[in-house]
Amino acid sequence: MRTIIVFFIFIVELFASNTPFDLYKKEGEIKGHTLLIIGGIHGDEPGGYFAPAFLEKYYKIKSGNLWIIPNLNTDSIMADNRGIYGDMNRKFSSVDKNDNDFETVTKIKKIILDKKVDLILNLHDGHGFYRNKYENAIFNPNAWGQATIIDQEKINGLEKFGNLDELANKVTSILNNDSLFQEYHSFGVKNTETKFKDEQMQLSLTYFAVTNNKPAMAIETSKNITELTYKVIYQLKSIEEFMKIMDIKFERDFDINNYEQVKNKIYDFGKVTINNNISFDLTDIKSNMRFVPLKKNDNKFDFTHSLARVKNSDNKYEIYIGNIKVCDLYPQIFDLSTTKEKIKILIDGKELETSFANIVDIKNDFKILKSDFRVNIIGFSKNGVDSEDDILIKKSDIQDNYSIDNSNNKYRVEFYKDGKFYGMIILNFIADKK
Ligand SMILES: [Zn+2]
Question: Which stretches of 258-352 are DSSP H helices?
Answer without folding.
Answer: 259-266
